[in-house]
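User: Please fill in residues for this 697-position structure.
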């Protein structure tokens, strides 16, 4: 069974999430030092001292160096300096946010760590993340690692955003950890993320698990971006997939410039400016993309206002990020965050309205929006209250994108199903229209569909025209009611159509009790169709005889010649028609079947263009003048469909009859009359013989 696209996407993403998280858990590398606080107690530094003497690294693993650090503003502290800090400040917070220091500043952090007396089997290592924006870390006076180049002035400082793991830490009972730090690049200066310390295997496992998650997010969101970009290219009238692709792309790129900053590993030596600009740009563009996605998914007055406002605000801030100094655009981040919060509240109103009005797929859309909102609020509360729990923003973002992707895939599937339904309906309409406008007529006009036809379209073709009509139908209609008349006509015509189509012709028009059919190429198909039409009529007459009804008689005329096919009328009402002498002549030949009391008459031109006519029994009737034609027309009778007894009579007298016709044409009426009398003796039911005897007597 073929699965719809949204199920395929769901299965694929679920498999990737499950397989990756299962691997990370089984490898033991999804350990979060914040979770260890629940197992080891709330261990934190107080007054610049972190007491880990009773901490078992082998059993408890990683620990975050959180709490109160000494801070010496505008002074790069030397190892062993006396304890005389300006104040104690919390790690994980910026200088300006709650600490009261200027953001563009420099100074020193110091933490005294009391390590366990029992040395762990593995060496200890330190992991660092974001700092604002340059730091040099000393472990008991040894330069452990540098992040950029801290300096007392912006002229000599060089900021950096990256992450990494230090070399092995020298074991000691008491450690002095000093960090020289400066910031001239961002409004958030200071030790933004807590440092992590632990056994080598667990530190690297934690670092690589975060790095793997960053790459995983990049891959998943990149795949979604490409997938929905293709959806947009295949259906450009629907802009929602485009903005979903933009959202997925920029959220995927954001994974390169957060947490472990994979971009700095892919491009070693890259400066802080490109990393910061991409970080802030992915945020601003994502706000615009999600707003436009919501607008095109659930369009309305409110969503339109939000879309315009979001686009204007996001593009303005993005321009500042691209061309402005790093410190300037980071200074305007908080106002833009407030602006984004207003947009988010507005979007919540749009989603809630769609949910109340039961718009298609609004339930899953609201679920995704709720997941993102809850995880974002959770992380804000976690940061404010310093809760011992891991961050959920990344998980919320993945679930949000996944749910929206499934929602969009469902919309695409629904659109595809609607398209298939409409296509099937259109095909039904086209099939119905073919009953009025034959597809062969379109082909002659070199058109694919009836919608391609325009007034005045025409084409010249060499065709054989067949004209058939019931004899004496007027009398039958006068003696019957309307319902019986229509039933009789439809029954008659239903038997004629298959014979025409079987022989590669098509019905051009129904003319009451008559039919006009067209055949391309040689006339043999038209002649064979005429024979089979009379066979169908004989079958119908047999049924009528069983019901005590009189038989129906039909005359058929056939002529071959050049025809002009085209459309006539006016813009609001047009019709297909054939303009040609062939139409007039085939009609006149059909009329002559009443004169000669026979079934099928064809012109000499039709005989000339018949191929493979060995199975046709033909008899020359003579040359006659017909209305609308200057020259006389050679008329030939096809006797294959005659009743068996009459067919035998005509075959027996054929040579005598044609000789009499020839003599009559030569003006030897007396000799011709004698031969026609001889024909009457052998074929008393021959209508053509009777016509000549009446004419010549």
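Assistant: Residues filled in for all 697 positions:
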């Amino acid at each position: 069974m073929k699965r719809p696209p949204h199920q395929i996407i769901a299965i694929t993403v679920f498999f990737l999430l499950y397989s990756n998280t299962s691997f990370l858990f089984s490898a033991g590398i999804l350990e979060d030092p914040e979770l260890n606080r629940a197992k080891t107690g709330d261990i934190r530094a107080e007054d610049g001292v972190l007491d880990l003497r009773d901490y078992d690294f082998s059993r408890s693993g990683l620990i975050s160096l959180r709490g109160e650090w000494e801070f010496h503003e505008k002074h790069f502290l030397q190892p062993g300096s006396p304890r005389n800090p300006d104040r104690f400040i919390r790690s994980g917070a910026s200088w300006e946010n709650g600490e009261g220091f200027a953001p563009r500043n420099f100074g020193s952090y110091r933490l005294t760590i009391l390590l366990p007396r029992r040395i762990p089997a593995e060496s200890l290592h330190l992991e660092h993340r974001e700092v604002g924006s340059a730091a040099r870390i000393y472990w008991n006076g040894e330069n452990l690692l540098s992040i950029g180049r801290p300096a007392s002035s912006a002229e000599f400082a060089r900021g950096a955003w990256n992450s990494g793991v230090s070399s092995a830490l020298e074991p000691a009972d008491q450690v002095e950890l000093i960090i020289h730090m400066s910031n001239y690049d961002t409004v958030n200066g200071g030790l933004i993320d807590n440092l992590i310390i632990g056994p080598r295997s667990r530190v690297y496992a934690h670092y690589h698990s975060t790095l793997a998650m960053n790459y995983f997010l990049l891959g998943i969101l990149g795949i979604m971006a490409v997938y929905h970009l293709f959806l947009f290219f295949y259906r450009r009238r629907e802009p929602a997939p485009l903005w979903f692709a933009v959202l997925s792309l920029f959220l995927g790129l954001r994974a390169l410039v957060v947490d472990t900053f994979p971009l700095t590993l892919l491009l070693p030596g890259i400066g802080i400016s490109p990393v910061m600009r991409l970080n802030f740009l992915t945020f601003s563009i994502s706000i615009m993309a999600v707003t436009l996605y919501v607008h095109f998914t659930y369009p309305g007055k409110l969503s339109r206002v939000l879309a315009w406002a979001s686009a204007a605000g996001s593009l303005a801030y993005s321009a500042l990020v691209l061309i402005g100094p790093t410190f300037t655009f980071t200074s305007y981040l908080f106002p833009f965050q407030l602006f984004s919060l207003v947009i988010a509240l507005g979007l919540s109103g749009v989603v809630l309205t769609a949910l109340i009005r039961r718009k298609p797929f609004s339930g899953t859309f609201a679920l995704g929006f709720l997941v993102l909102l809850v995880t974002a609020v959770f992380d804000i509360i976690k940061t404010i209250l310093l809760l011992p729990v891991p961050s959920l923003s990344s998980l919320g973002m993945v679930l949000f994108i996944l749910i929206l992707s499934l929602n969009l895939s469902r919309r695409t599937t629904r659109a595809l199903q609607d398209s298939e339904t409409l296509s099937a309906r259109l095909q039904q309409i086209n099939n119905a229209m073919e009953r009025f406008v034959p597809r062969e007529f379109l082909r002659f006009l070199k058109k694919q569909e009836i919608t391609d036809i325009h007034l005045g379209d025409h084409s010249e073709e060499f065709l054989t025209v067949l004209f058939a009509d019931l004899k004496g139908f007027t009398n039958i209609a006068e003696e019957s009611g309307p319902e019986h008349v229509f039933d009789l006509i439809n029954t008659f015509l239903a038997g004629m159509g298959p014979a025409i189509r079987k022989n590669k012709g098509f019905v051009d028009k129904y003319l009451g009790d008559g039919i006009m059919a067209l055949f391309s190429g040689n006339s043999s198909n038209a002649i064979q169709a005429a024979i089979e039409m009379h066979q169908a009529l004989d079958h119908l007459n047999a049924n009528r005889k069983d019901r005590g009804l009189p038989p129906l008689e039909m005359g058929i005329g056939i002529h071959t010649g050049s025809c002009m096919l085209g459309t006539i009328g006016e813009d609001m009402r047009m019709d297909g028609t054939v303009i040609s002498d062939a139409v007039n002549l085939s009609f006149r030949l059909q009329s002559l079947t009443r004169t000669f009391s026979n079934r099928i008459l064809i012109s000499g031109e039709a005989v000339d263009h018949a191929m493979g006519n060995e199975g046709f029994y033909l008899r020359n009737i003579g040359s006659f003048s017909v209305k609308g034609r200057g020259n006389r027309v050679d008329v030939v009778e096809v006797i294959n469909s005659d009743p068996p007894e009459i067919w035998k009579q005509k075959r027996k007298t054929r040579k005598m009859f044609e000789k009499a016709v020839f003599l009559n044409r030569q003006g030897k009426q007396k000799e011709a009359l004698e031969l026609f009398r001889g024909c009457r003796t052998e074929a008393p039911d021959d209508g053509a013989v009777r016509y000549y005897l009446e004419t010549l007597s």
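For context: DSSP finds 22 helices and 19 strands in the chain.
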